Amino acid sequence: MIFGGVGAGAGMLTEEGISRIRAARLIYGSDRALELVRGYAAADAVLVSITDYAALRSLAADAVVLSTGDPLMAGLGYLPGEVVPGISSMQVAFARLKVSWTNVAVVNAHGKDHATAVARAAADVCAGHSVFVIADPDFSVAVLAAALPPGTRVAVCEDLGYPSERVAEGTAEHPPAKKSRLFCVVAGY
Questions:
Q1: What pTM was estimated for this model as a whole?
Q2: Measured between alpha carbons, how far is residue 153 from residues 62, 92, 144 in Å?
Q3: Which residue segment(s) compose the domain that 116 sits in?
Q4: Which label site among 55, 90, 129, 162 has the fewest CB atoms less than 10 Å from its CB?
Q5: Could you write out the DSSP letters of every residue in 116-138?
Q6: Which of 87, 122, 146 represents a domain boundary (last residue)?
Q7: CA 76 to chain centre
Q8: Do residue 120 and residue 69 come from a single domain?
Q9: If 0-12 CB within 10 Å is exposed, 13-18 middle and 19+ buried, where does residue 169 land?
Q10: What is the pLDDT of residues 132-155, one digit of tens each?
């Protein structure tokens, strides 16, 4: 099996990713991932929306499984098989903010315990790291901001790579509000 990153948004597929998608005859992914690659898939390719993630372990060996962003950034790259990297939302967020990500801590709050993620992010900021938070629609930027030291910079990066892309910056005292369900947070940069 091949796990391929389709990038954070439109136009962010790598050349290797495009090549693998063009050669694939069986492609699995979320509806969003499938939409990002539809124009690259061969006419005879079968595109299947993933409804049962547990069943991915039993797919055919020649299947390509898509992951938005990069398969190893809270994606499907943990499963056995080859990984083709993609452009992650972290790469895009730090590029938009023009901030180096050499001292970044990644906190996954997507489908995870938000209180634990907030505590980890706050500890990482206090330790001198920039923090990238992979959020889900229910993650509260205000709760995160309240746990950060005063003056900490906070950015909400939404719909990265899409026409509705938005990057809003603020501080722990005045955090930016999220307006989309598809967002990540950068703090302490």
A1: 0.91
A2: 45, 18, 12
A3: 90-187
A4: 55
A5: HHHHHHHHHHHTT-EEEEE--TT
A6: 87
A7: 11
A8: no
A9: middle
A10: 999 999 999 999 999 999 999 999
